[in-house]
Amino acid sequence: ADIGFTSSTVPRMIVGISTQSRVISYGACLTQMSLFILFACTDNILLTVMAYDRFVAICHPLHYAVIMNPRRCKLLLLLSVFASLVDSQVHNLTTLQFTCFKEVQVASFFCDPPQILDLSCSGSLIKNIVTYVVGILFGFFPMSGIIFSYYKIVSALLKTPLSGGRYKAFSTCGSHLSVVCLFYGTGIGTYLGSIASYSPRKGMVASLMYTVVT
Fold it and tell me: Going by CATH, does the domain composed of 1-213 fall within 3.90.1570.10?
């Protein structure tokens, strides 16, 4: 998911830098947006699944092999990919409904979904519905799941008398928490920041953080 996520934006950015051309065709833009959403959502949901995995491992270690059995892991993976595919096609179909555009420039190094939706000069009702519904389903719920999982993990660790057990648990969760903070922190800053204070330069830096650095 990470390789696909990065590969959907970075190669095109490198070509643009090397050729000094910032032009992208309409079809290529839609393809890039679809792939970006597909892998970004898969990454997003898998981060939530990984938080649940750590919650089970730390809070229910004796039942871990039963709860996180191979069949359930495969099911969670398939659900992650399927939900992400639905999300990418919803954005694609919404964009294809546009009959006119206010302008043809995107203030980013890739076809960023929110900015593509903002180019429409038609009514904003469908755009707002898609934005808020997708934001709740693929932003609020996954983030809530991660917060709840780590709340339970921290509560369990505080009851552990041995410091060695706490250190091992925190070291296990450290890399995951780092990616979660980087991924969600920059993503939330980009997409939920107020329009009035939005800066294209800051938006591109934030986009670079969660598309490349993570």
Answer: no
